[in-house]
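Data card: per-record layout.
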Amino acid sequence: MQNALAAADYPERVLVACSGGPDSLALAAVAGYFARRGHVDGHPISVAGVVVDHQLQAGSAEVASRTAAVLRELGLSPVEVRTVEVASTGFGPEAAARDARHAALDAAAADLGCDRILLGHTLDDQAEQVLLGLARGSGTRSLAGMRPARGRLLRPFLGLRREETLEICEVEELQPWHDPSNSDSAFARSRTRVEVMPVLEEKLGPGVAESLARTAAILQQDADFLEDLANETYLSLVQRTDDGAWLPEDAVRGLRAALRFRVIAKAAADVGGQQPGYGRLQAAEALLRRQGSAGPVELPGHVSVYRLSLSDLEQERAASGGPGYAASPTGGPREAARCGKLVFRHQKSPQQ
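The structure for this 352-residue chain is written out next.
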């Protein structure tokens, strides 16, 4: 905890997110130690707490109220319970609950004037995240797992095992709440935790979780490098228009595959889309190998991408007599562009 707060430049006010489970309750206990001291390495600090009630289980309000009382006893102040409605997002119940929770945490941090939000994810959570990414066939960004710090989110316990958070609760004489959904086989993460990880530890030997977490740490560095390089490349190529953006196809085609796919994804996001899956990215990238104008390919978030060939561009300019078209000294058309375009446009949904 001390190292995490130091790395975050000693925030003066932090918010602990606590469900009442052993991981977040142990986090609250350690944060409460610094709250009672009033400083970290001589830097002043105050610690608030928030319990998010997802209303997904019977008795959730009672669990939230009891957890809030424990946080107050630990020295956190103020402590709030935030009740949320978990709406379907089309990405599964776990993702919907996470989105609702993070929205509540962001709102609580803003209302309470907190610079950072502390989350209780452990090394075991990180290992499960990497395994789930592998099972889904995800890319480097997903396999890099959760970050110790991202925006105002801090995860001080990513280096601790789950058994250690249970030990903290035992030493502090705390009675954590055990969420029944954590052992519910209906959820992929629960199956990974209860069924997959124990088998891997048994068959491959101890240390599997640590190895998976170490893999995430290595891939985070790789992902950051590729992200920076892709961002620089994209900004050097993109041409924005009133209704979207386009990329010169020859330049995109000449990129290494790792950059090419990332640049296409950035263009989709730039015009208002969501992160495309690998299959959709492949379909968009395949437009570069088509003859003539082609597409559109639909990407998540109501984004259409299509290829506009050089010949079609020239015909379009000649017909309109618009900017970029001019007659050559010999009377023929002067080439206004050296290649075609990969065009990205956002299409409003019917609800919009």
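Known properties of this structure: DSSP finds 13 helices and 15 strands in the chain. The two ends are 45 Å apart (CA to CA).

See the next section for split statistics.
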